[in-house]
Amino acid sequence: MSISIKNLKKSYKNHLVLDDLNLDIKEGSLFGLLGPNGAGKTTLVSILNSLIPKDSGTIQIYGKDLDKDSAYIKSICSFVPQTYAFYPKLTSFENLEFFGALYGLKGNELKQRINYCIEVTSLEKYINRKAYTYSGGLKRRLNIAIGLLNDPKVLYLDEPTVGIDPQSRKYILNVIKKINEEKKTTIIYTSHYMEEVEYLCDEIAILDRSKIILQEKKDILVEKNSNIEIKTTNGESKKINIKDSYEEFTSYITDIKNKNIEIENINFGHKSLEDMFLSLTKQDLRD
Amino acid sequence: MFKYLLKKEFTLIFRDLHALMVLFIMPVIFILIMSLALKNSYSNSVDSPLKVAITSTKNNKTIKVLINEISKNALFETNFIKVKNKKEQLYQKNYDFVVELQSNFIERIKLNDKNFKLNIYSKPDIQVQKIELLKKLITGASSKIILEDLLSQQKIKTKEVLDFEAKIKNQFIYKKEGFEVTPTSVQQSVPAWLVFSMFFILIPISNTFINEKAFGTIDRIRSINVSLFPILIGKIIPYYFINQIQVIFMILVGVFIVPLLGGDSLEIKGNYFLIFIVSSSVSIASICFALLIANISKTTEEATTIGGVSNIILAALGGIMVPKFVMPQFMQDITEYSPMAWGLQSFLEVFVRGGDFSDISSYVYKMFSFAIICLILAYILLKKRS
User: Fold this and answer.
1) Backbone dihedral region of B74: left (phi > 0), alpha (psi from -120 to 50 degrees) or beta?
2) In the 3-class helix/strand/coil scheme, how is B247-273 assigned residue by residue?
3) For position B260, what pLDDT does the model report?
4) Residues of chain A with pLDDT under 50
5) Which residues from chain B sit within 8 angstroms of residue A85, using beta carbons?
6) A87 CB within 8 Å of a chain B CB
7) Are A132 and A241 within one domain?
8) Which of A42, A46, A102, A154 to mutate to test binding with chain B, by most B CBs within 10 Å of its CB?
């Protein structure tokens, strides 16, 4: 496991934000962390990055305890916040040089890492332009580039595609996929865009009201929701999971044919992740 | 790593045009204006003397002597005018004083005449000291005329005796022998507005620091296993250099630019090492104060308001805007609580009075203590809020 969280608790004053949370994330996984506003996603990611302390529980990252080996864990992890966490008045190169130095890189190693990050995020043309002149998409790419400087084993991406155009978003998603595939980097991806998580992640967890209410491999989730709904002209309707019950499906079709009942409509389920998310989190509006 | 922390801060400062304007252009304008505006308050020369109209029923020899005696004082330009309307003389002819006297006023004084009268008319905004000075000049001149009469009646040669005023001389005793710097407006203005501008370092410091917090850059840095203390220290050093550039720049303005506009030239005779000690103390105090304001405030607008208002209050209390010596005693006592006053007094001790370390040590200790307290509070707030 790259990340193993056991009985994690965190509260602010009297408000419980994370309640006895357990979560295991495999090495090299592209892990989607979903949850409505206020569910505790940011708190969880902040604890994992040692930005805020936990109340209780244990966290192990690559076999090391977060409390005891915080310095090592920080050196193998990288956090890309939702905000543009860089200096707008510096150029991309200056930003990368500064953050690279903070990671302890210097000389040729620093130059090589900067070049790699620029190449991966295709920032070559903009490297000497001040960051405040960038479009939203370029700023997001720079934000990610900085996060790749230390060649992390674990990369936390907090809503990295907010406020950008579809082309930039698609590009960024592909960059993330590429990093995960080529470097086997474990990526923890939080987002409100369900279709992104569905497209990108191989495993998904939904965090709501301080707890993980669902954790599953994406393929299994899709399979579990491969229902179809058959409506007939006599007003009846029947739901069947064709993956699990193919025989039930064929016998039902034979049956209605024999009874001379016509099919009015077949609704192919494949419930989307968003439908699942809304049904699991009860659809009520959050602050 | 530290090299890149410094490089980043320097780059950010030199790309912040507004901050550079506040740090360099604003104090230069203040120095030029205040050095020229306060020139006469420090100088013995008078550019525009006060106009006095002596009026009486007739202009006789005694009145001419009186006019001559008053005119010996460069502060007054005295003329005899037949005045019909005193208000018109004051408000339309721009006289500062109208002195109405009886043409035989000397005789009336000698006779101790109960009907003797001598009236001085002036606008209400004339300083009381100037009215008192004119009164003393009139009484002095009258006494001189009476004494001259008495002595001539006794056939005593009077010329040498009556010119005794010319024998009265004021001599300055300087605090340090051989250190004879005449206090001028520029000697006050340069250190005053220099200290003021050094404290305005809080604008760029708070802007960068609050943006770092708001954009999550501080969190990103913390997630990279860098502790907050070197980040705070990394901010002090570049801004310290900026403050030192300000010191050199403002001194050069005082030495070369102010005289070009008709002001006095700044004389730098003080010990350079002491100037360095003072400028370093002011710098450390102002930067740590700025870090505290940056950590108290949540937005740049809040920091600019809190910091700007605090700086103006500290400057008003610290003798920056109004020289300490013109304040009443209780206000002079209050100045002792302003860090800007500690900086200003230290600079004046070194620049004007040729003081040594013992003269500035208490101010230097106060500034460093102030800086340490601000830095500790800033660190606690930063830790608490992040």
Assistant:
1) alpha
2) HHHHHHHHHHHHHHCCCCCCCCCCCHH
3) 92
4) none
5) 215-217, 219-220
6) yes
7) no
8) A102
The CATH number of the domain where A117 resides is what? 3.40.50.300
8 Å CB contact of B224 and A150: yes
The verdict on residue A105 lying in a domain is: yes
For B3-16, the DSSP string reads HHHHHHHHHHHHT-
Looking at this predicted complex, what is its ipTM? Answer: 0.80
Number of domains in chain A: 2
Q: With an 8 Å Cβ cutoff, is A101 touching chain B?
A: yes
- What are the φ/ψ torsions at residue A193 (nearest 5 degrees)? -85, 105
Q: B246: which 2 tokens?
A: 């300000």
Q: Structure tokens of B278? A: 């003072």
Query: Quick one: pLDDT at residue A99?
Result: 95
Range of the domain at A241: 226-270
Chain B residues near residue A78 by CB distance under 8 angstroms: 223
* pLDDT reported for residue B338: 92
> Which residues are CB-neighbours of A101 under 8 A, at least 6 positions away?
A110, B1, B3, B4, B5
Residues A130 and A98 reside in one and the same domain: yes
CB contact at 8 A, B310 and B293? yes
Rounded to a whole number, what is the distance in Å from the CA of A208 to chain B's nearest CA? 24
* pLDDT at residue number A284: 57
Question: Is residue A287 assigned to a domain?
Answer: no
Are B193 and B250 in contact by the 8 Å Cβ rule? The answer is yes
Q: How far is CA A102 from the centre of its chain?
A: 26
Task: With beta carbons less than 8 A apart as the criterion, state whether A104 and A46 touch.
Answer: no
Q: What is the pLDDT of residue A275?
A: 64
For domain B46-167, the CATH architecture is: 3-Layer(aba) Sandwich (3.40)
In a domain, A279, yes or no: no
Q: Chain A: nearest CA to B380, how far in angstroms?
A: 15
Q: Over chain B (386 residues), what is each successive 10-residue block's mean pLDDT? A: 83 88 91 85 71 89 89 88 84 89 87 87 89 92 86 71 69 72 82 93 89 88 81 84 94 92 84 92 95 90 91 90 82 89 92 85 96 92 76
| Residue A280, domain member (yes or no) | no
Rounded to whole angstroms, the Cα distance separating B199 from B193 reads: 10
Are residue A214 and residue A248 in the same domain, yes or no? no
* Domain locations in chain B as residue ranges: 2-41+184-385, 46-167
Antiparallel, parallel or unpaired: β B50-55 and B97-101: parallel
Q: For chain A, how many residues are written? A: 287
